[in-house]
Amino acid sequence: MDTIKKLKAGKTTGADLMHLAKLSDGMLQKIRDEMLEPFPRKVPPIISSSRLQEMCGIDKQRMGYVLKKGELPAGTQAKAGSPRQFTVEETIAWIRSERNPLPRNGPAKVIVVANFKGGVTKTTTSTLLAQGLSMRRGRRVLHIDLDPQGSASTLYGINPHAEVDSSQTVMPLIEAYLEGQPFDMTTLPVPTYWPNVDIIPSSTELFNAEFMLPARAASDGEVRFEQVLHDGLAQLKDTYDYIIVDTAPTLSYLTINAIFAADGVIVPVVPDMLSFASMVQFWHLFGDLINGMQAFDDGRAKEFDFVDVLVTRMTSKPAAQILQGWITQIYGSRVVPIEIPESDLARNTNMRFSTFYDLGPSDVGAETLRRIRTPVDQLVDRVDDKVCAIWAQEE
Ligand SMILES: Nc1ncnc2c1ncn2[C@@H]1O[C@H](COP(=O)(O)OP(=O)(O)OP(=O)(O)O)[C@@H](O)[C@H]1O
Ligand SMILES: [Mg+2]
């Protein structure tokens, strides 16, 4: 209080400043302690029988028939006659049997979520894709957190400050590459709380890659620094169906590596003027980057299976509608015909280190949940349908 009174009186002494410094120290220590605490372990959500039926594409009768046969998990019931509930693991067993997804044909597809603009839902989208492809299509997914901020890691309940050191991130791959040593990538993925989703987490030390890669490239013109991740991932493409990569909002060396490793790129964009303007810059940089890249070692030029624009945080505001019109006009068929709406729920769930897919009917009203989950479900299904079509072509 004394400090505030003196500041109000317009006199700030050296002693006041020392006092402020002391207060900041105390606060920083408190924040640091909190940052270093491991997060509470997460658990996957419970799936209702109606949601299970929707995901499997079956009706109540079919479900009753399958349950009678007794070959698939029966879930649990609070008491006889009450609705059944299923774990995500049980749901996946149903999906694999009833939906019967096309098996992966060829190596895993690498999907990178990128936009150099911050806060356009890259991390949210990449995590929903990983969770959704596992739950709705029974896929095996590896999620790679390439952002030193570690936001994707936090969505899996991992505290990147307290629980991850550089040896658990993609750093050892980069170090081995720079030393000209082989590296066993199969040592990096770790299981998450979500069935069939593994992660290679991030930590702040990933920032070091931004100094190491260019330093080596400058001293050795032959070094293909943009190919490190692409080459490393080759070892994992038989184990997984999808490798989903979350990137930082910068054109960093790690982001360049992600883009070079990508089969498909999803560019989330928020329909506001700033986002739209920075998209223009994104395409210039992205285009220059790919055109400037030397071909692969075997002479092939870099190509993508798809580069899609996803409109997210869509609102009914006139400005948003106008911008969405422009986006469609410019990017045409590259715009995913699904809008992810702006949702207060999203802000709140992320605050609790969760996504929409983590929530069950007991956490939030069924209708609120359905409104946001339906377009996300459609996005997941569309990605898998698209990739299945590509796998079929590659046969
Ligand atoms: N559909 C949505 N509606 C409203 N808010 C959302 C929605 N999806 C995500 N958000 C919120 O938007 C913010 C940014 O999301 P997110 O962290 O996924 O973006 P990002 O592009 O990864 O950010 P960064 O560039 O910092 O990595 C978060 O607070 C998140 O909770
Ligand atoms: Mg992010």
From TrEMBL:
Signal sequence annotation: none
Database matches in CDD domains: ParAB_family
Domain spans labelled AAA: 108-289
SUPFAM superfamilies, per the entry: P-loop containing nucleoside triphosphate hydrolases
Domain of life: Bacteria
Name this polypeptide is given: Cobyrinic acid a,c-diamide synthase
